[in-house]
Amino acid sequence: MRRAAWGTFAGDMYIIPIREAFELNGRAPAASNPKAPKLPLPGWRTAISVPVGVRILHFTRRSFVGITLAGLAGAAVGSERSGVEGSGVERPGAESSAAVPPALLRRALDALEHHSGNIDHRDVIGIADFSQHSRAPRFHVLNLGDGTATSLLVAHGRGSDPAHTGWLERFSNQPRSQATSAGAYRTEAIYVGEHGRSMRLDGLDPTNDNAASRAIVVHGAWYVSDEIIRHFGLLGRSEGCLAVANSSLDEVLSRLGPGRLIYADKA
User: Fold this and answer.
1) 202 CB burial (10 A radius; 0-12, 13-18, 19+)
2) Domain ranges of the chain
């Protein structure tokens, strides 16, 4: 998997695309090409070796995160996908296994800023891209600290897909709609209920502010799995909850635990 790494220098950030075995884990790396030119970076004690063809790009702190994550997610499209064309199945849980559309990513990051007073932890966010078919790993768990993304399967509500085509047709915030709601959510308490371990959600926007009263939560579900996709070509549907694979639930609850942002929408 290709990675990007960065350092923070007096409020600015620098991203260095990593090629081959070229790695940067918080310190100046050794280049695979000893003749590569040495370039100084502010804040580093020594210059680093940069392979030919690799550019160092400068961004402000605000613009850096969105551009970096979009690049990371897009870089691995194709290399991390598993038999999509032949079987309709994509491998969930792969880092950066599907691209987050830049416009959707930008809206999610804007929501993080807009709702900053309600978000306690800004290290990891979740983005559910409901413009994708349900067989795609469309729930992206983004680590804003190191730029990595893990993409997982997630089901939408039956009220959003009445014909069960696998495509979300509409969002709704109405009680008893059994539909998925778009917007920013704050993750709340983890509890054990009807679906086992689950995590409550609080809707922060007018498009999803009934989430708590509708009992919209994150939970695991038997109908979200590779096996279901292999047999039926699509996932089952929830009653509006963000239902993930049982095998992914522990990761989702631990990484997106209480006080973090989940953003759901179409690209």
Assistant:
1) middle
2) 4-61, 76-265
